[in-house]
Amino acid sequence: MNSQCFRFDQTTGNRPRHLRTFIHRVTGLIIASGLLFALGCRQSDQPPTVTAADQARADQLAVQVQLNWYPETEHGGIYQAQADGTYAAAGLNVEIRPGGRATPVAPELDLGRCHFAITGADDVIQFRRQGSKVVAVLAAVQNHPRCIMVQAACPVRSFDDFATSGMTLQCQPGRAFLDFLEQRGYLKQVKQVPYHGSVASLVTDPTIAIQAYSFAEPLLAKQQGVQTRQLMVSDLGWNPYSSVLVTTETLIEEQPELVRKFVQATRQGWQHYFDNPALGNAAVLDANQHGMTAEALQFGVEQMKPLAVPQDMTSQDIGMMTLDRWQTLVEQMDSLDPQRAGKVRPGDCFTTAFLGDES
């Protein structure tokens, strides 16, 4: 730095003009900083502004619900209730957690990582056999959408045809419906190979069959130019409730009011979804990162509604369950696995107390 910038003028005894200007500017900055500091301290003493929306969110009960698969039509009522404000109106702040392959539904519940989950009625029995105290509180779908899907051009028109067809079935090993089909001889001449969630093999090979849901895979095949036929497993008597909302015995005992609020709001969500699924489908589409389309969701809800609200029911009955249905399912599963027969009592698997229905 040039030393002359800060020397006294020998003739006047005063500081140079540029030095005086510098000092004035520094002094001004110091004063301004002090004022800002004082203002900041004064403002920090004031409480933060809380809006009505912030207070409403703070007053809501936090709820986590775990899905058993990627967000799809089978979860539409939950997304509808979140999107249209039904959960918020019930005082619930709901987090929906997408699932995927082998989502550990029962462990998530048992460990308290979520309050509720979606699964199938047969899975509830399996979970209870394994020691999990899972309880069904609402069944959105009365008639199960599980089917075996084949090309419409192939000669298989019934399960009797399928049993002797020599076809290859792409399926997920360990599923109870496969044990049911095998016990009744419908897979005796069928080769089973893993299913990876695609209709590609069926589209190109008429000797391929795949496990499917009647409100999903048929459209995927149609979009690729192939008409299909669905052999409904429920027609054979295997008909577990589907899209079942479950929780734990502990939550029911400790927070029954929370369970009641969530069950009733979820039921309303399904009623709204089947009446007008626009908001629910938009929310599912936004949450699904696995190639879901608006067309597939619309097709899904159109096919799913008759399964959820059969002809002998109304929308007011959505979610209902009966002891007879659970009794039948437990007996079927006991016959498939005699070594574990008797470990699960039908009445322990479900409750309709939060729906207001009689079991």
Structure commentary:
α3 packs across α12 and α3 crosses α13. By secondary structure, this protein is of the alpha/beta class. The strands form two sheets. The protein has a five-stranded mixed beta sheet, sandwiched between helices. Strands 7-6-8-5-9 form a five-stranded mixed beta sheet. Residues 1-24 and 34-44 have low confidence and may be disordered. It contains 15 helices and ten strands.
In short, what is this structure?
The chain is an alpha/beta fold.
Number of β-strand runs: 10
CATH architecture of the largest domain: 3-Layer(aba) Sandwich
* Major beta sheet, strand line-up: 2-1-3-10-4
How many helical stretches?
A: 15
Strand content: 15-25%
Shape: globular
Mean pLDDT: 88
Give, in order, the helices and strands: HHEHHEHEHEEHEHEHEHEEHHHHH
Can you tell me the CATH class of the largest domain? Alpha Beta
Kindly report how far apart the N and C termini lie.
92 Å
Organism: Crateriforma conspicua
Domain SsuA/THI5-like: 73-278
Transmembrane segments: 21-40
Protein name: NMT1/THI5 like protein
